[in-house]
Amino acid sequence: MRVMGLDVGTKTVGVAVSDAMGWTAQGIETVKIDEEAGELGLARLADLIKEYEVSKVVIGLPKNMNNTLGPRGEACMLYADRVRDTFNLPVEMWDERLSTMAAERVLLEADVSRQKRKKVIDKMAAVMILQGFLDRQSYK
């Protein structure tokens, strides 16, 4: 039973999946979406959920630094509701403040070109969201 981590944006959703033991997160792919047009990539997520035998989904919740939710946070909550209703899986929100910045820093330190960073940043952010969640679970 694996956990899937999602970093939800307006144009893409970064996807990561845990190993079978729930210890490590691996980036899978970036799913193209069009939030404005209501194209949320749920068909592709369905394929990935089945392929990886996902039993839970963790979605990054972009909070403001003062712990409030802005428009992006509210959009992620709505996305979480759609995922929960569509796949009948437990969905947890994970405070993702600074996860994209941390992913960018890792990629910069690895000397990844700007063009390549754009292609993998959301997937890397999903890994950081999921790994944070998995690390917290291991201490419970």
TrEMBL record:
Primary location recorded for the protein, binned into one broad class: cytoplasm
YqgF/RNase H-like domain residues: 1-103
GO molecular function: hydrolase activity, acting on ester bonds; nuclease activity
Keywords: Cytoplasm, Hydrolase, Nuclease, Ribosome biogenesis
BP terms from Gene Ontology: rRNA 5'-end processing
Transmembrane segments: none
Documented EC number(s): 3.1.-.-
GO cellular component: cytosol
Superkingdom of source: Bacteria
Compartments, as annotated in UniProt: Cytoplasm
InterPro entries assigned: RNaseH-like_sf (IPR012337), YqgF (IPR005227), YqgF/RNaseH-like_dom (IPR006641), YqgF/RNaseH-like_dom_sf (IPR037027)
HAMAP family for this protein: Nuclease_YqgF
Similarity field: Belongs to the YqgF HJR family.
Primary role: Could be a nuclease involved in processing of the 5'-end of pre-16S rRNA.
UniProt protein name: Putative pre-16S rRNA nuclease
Record organism: Mangrovibacillus cuniculi
